[in-house]
C-alpha cells in the first residue's frame, strides 16, 4: 500500500510512444530495467566519481556510487510509503549524464560551452541520452521512458527557470517534483558524503585524526564506537562510525520528511506538487552536519593538492580535444557528423565528449596528440 502522496503507477502520464503493457512488469519497473540495460549505464563503470583507477580498484566509480544511491533510495522510499520502483529508476538514472573525469570534466565542458554562449548541464544531458542517443528500439529513438522518470531526471536536484527553458515546458517547471524525485538529491548526498570519507581514508589522502577533528558528527559516533569496541583496530572503528553516520543521515531523512509532510498538511501527490517547498529534507541540525561533512570534503579532499594534478590533466584533455573536433569536424564519428547538420557544432562535440568514459577519452587524446 502506497501513501496517498506517492506516485501511483496507474496514474502515470505515460510514454511518448504508447506501448503494449507488459504481462508482469509495470511501467516504472520497465523503465528501471531500461536504464540498467542502457549503454550509457554500463559506461558509468569507467567514469570517475572522485578517484581515478590510479588509486585503487576498491574505490567507487560512478556505477558503484549509483548502485549505492539506489540502495539508500529504496530504503527511504519504502519507509515513507513512496513508489519504490519509480524512486529506484530515478536513482539508477541520476548520474547518467555525467561526462568523464568527474566534476573536473563537467566544469571544463561547461566552460568551453559558455565561451560559445551555450552551457553543459548533466541533468539535461541525461535527458538527451534517454530521449535520443540510446538506440535500442526499432520504433523510436531513445528509451521511451515514462513522463515521471523523465521529469525526475530534470527536476530531482534543482529547479529550472521556465522562462529560460521553454524546451522543458512539458515538465511543469512551476510545480515541485514528486517525493520520489525529491529524495534523490539527498540520498545522493548521503551516498557520496560517506563514501568519499571512506575512499579518502583508504587513499591516505585523509587521516582518521583529521576526520575526527573536522567532522563533528563523525567524532560524536566515533566516541560511542570507542566505548563499545575499545580494542578494535582503528579501521574497524572507522567503519563502525561511518555506518552510524550513514544510518543517522538516512534515518533523519525518513523521519524529518515524514514530519514535514504532516506539518504542512500534505496528503496527496497534488499537494506535494503544489507546495512552494520541497518536502524531502533533513532536519536543520542534521542538515548542518551534512554541510559540515561536505565542507570538510571540499577543503581536504576534492581540492587537495594530491588530486590537483589529475584535475589539471582532465581539464587539458577535454579542452584540447574539444578544440580539435571544433576545427576538424570531419574527424568526428560518422553519426556525430550527421548530427552536426541539425545541431550546432559545439553541442555535437560536447555530446560526443560527454558520452565518453575516462579510458576512451584518454585513448583519443593519446591517438591524436602523441
Ligand atoms: Mg550522484
Explain what the structure shows:
- The protein has helices spanning 27-36, 39-43, 62-79, 84-93, 102-114, 122-133, 147-155, 179-202, 208-214, 216-228, 234-263, 269-274, 284-302, 305-327, 334-339, 345-354, 358-369.
- It is mostly helical.
- It has 2 domains: 9-308, Orthogonal Bundle (Hypothetical protein af1432); 313-369, no CATH class.
- The longest helix is centred in the last third of the chain and has 30 residues, at 234-263.
- Bound molecules: magnesium ion.
- Magnesium ion binds next to helix 3.
- Magnesium ion is lined by residues 65, 69, 94-95, 188.
Question: Which helices and strands appear, and what pairs or packs with what?
Answer:
Layout: H1 27-36, H2 39-43, H3 62-79, H4 84-93, H5 102-114, H6 122-133, H7 147-155, H8 179-202, H9 208-214, H10 216-228, H11 234-263, H12 269-274, H13 284-302, H14 305-327, H15 334-339, H16 345-354, H17 358-369
Helix pairs in contact: 1-4, 3-4, 3-8, 3-11, 4-7, 4-8, 5-14, 5-16, 6-7, 8-11, 8-13, 9-10, 10-11, 14-16, 14-17
The structure holds magnesium ion (MG).
Magnesium ion (MG) binds next to helix 3.
- Fraction of residues in β-strands: under 5%
Low-confidence stretches: none
Number of helices: 17
- The total tally of domains equals 2
Bound molecules: magnesium ion
Q: Ends: how far apart?
A: 60 Å
> Helices and strands: which structural class?
mainly alpha
> Sheet with the most strands?
none
Sequence of secondary-structure elements: HHHHHHHHHHHHHHHHH
Oligomeric status of the shown chains?
single chain
- Helix residue percentage: 55-70%
Which fold name is given in CATH as the topology of the largest domain?
Hypothetical protein af1432
Count of beta strands: 0
Q: What is the name of the CATH superfamily of the largest domain?
A: Hypothetical protein af1432
Amino acid at each position: 500500500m502506497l501513501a496517498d502522496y506517492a506516485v501511483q503507477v496507474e496514474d502515470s502520464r505515460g510514454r511518448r510512444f504508447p506501448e503494449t503493457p507488459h504481462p508482469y512488469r509495470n511501467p516504472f519497473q520497465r523503465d528501471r530495467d531500461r536504464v540498467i540495460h542502457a549503454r550509457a549505464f554500463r559506461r558509468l563503470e569507467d567514469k570517475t566519481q572522485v578517484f581515478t583507477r590510479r588509486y585503487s580498484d576498491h574505490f567507487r566509480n560512478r556505477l558503484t556510487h549509483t548502485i549505492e544511491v539506489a540502495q539508500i533510495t529504496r530504503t527511504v522510499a519504502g519507509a515513507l510509503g513512496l513508489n519504490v520502483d519509480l524512486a529506484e529508476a530515478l536513482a539508477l538514472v541520476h548520474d547518467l549524464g555525467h561526462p568523464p573525469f568527474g566534476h573536473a570534466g563537467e566544469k571544463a565542458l561547461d566552460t568551453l560551452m559558455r565561451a560559445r554562449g551555450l552551457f553543459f548541464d548533466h541533468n539535461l544531458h541525461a535527458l538527451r541520452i534517454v530521449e535520443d542517443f540510446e538506440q535500442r528500439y526499432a520504433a523510436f529513438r531513445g528509451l521511451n521512458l515514462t513522463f515521471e522518470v523523465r521529469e525526475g531526471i530534470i527536476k530531482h536536484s534543482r529547479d529550472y527557470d521556465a522562462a529560460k527553458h521553454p524546451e522543458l515546458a512539458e515538465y511543469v517547471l512551476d510545480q515541485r517534483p514528486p517525493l520520489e524525485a525529491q529524495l534523490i538529491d539527498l540520498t545522493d548526498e548521503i551516498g557520496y558524503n560517506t563514501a568519499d570519507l571512506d575512499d579518502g581514508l583508504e587513499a591516505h589522502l585523509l587521516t582518521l585524526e583529521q576526520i575526527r577533528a573536522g567532522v563533528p558528527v563523525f567524532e560524536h559516533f566515533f566516541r560511542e564506537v570507542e566505548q563499545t569496541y575499545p580494542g578494535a583496530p582503528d579501521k574497524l572503528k572507522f567503519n563502525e562510525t561511518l555506518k552510524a553516520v550513514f544510518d543517522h543521515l538516512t534515518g533523519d531523512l525518513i523521519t524529518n520528511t515524514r514530519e514535514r509532510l504532516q506539518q504542512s498538511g500534505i496528503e496527496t501527490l497534488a499537494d506535494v506538487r503544489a507546495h512552494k517547498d520541497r518536502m524531502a529534507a533533513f532536519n536543520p541540525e542534521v542538515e548542518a552536519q551534512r554541510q559540515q561533512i561536505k565542507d570538510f570534503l571540499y577543503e581536504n579532499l576534492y581540492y587537495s593538492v594530491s588530486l590537483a594534478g589529475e584535475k589539471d590533466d582532465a581539464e587539458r584533455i577535454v579542452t584540447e580535444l574539444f578544440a580539435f573536433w571544433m576545427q576538424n569536424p570531419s574527424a568526428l564519428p560518422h553519426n556525430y557528423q550527421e548530427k552536426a547538420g541539425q545541431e550546432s557544432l559545439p553541442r555535437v562535440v560536447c555530446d560526443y565528449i560527454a558520452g565518453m568514459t575516462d579510458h576512451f577519452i584518454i585513448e583519443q587524446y593519446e591517438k591524436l596528440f602523441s
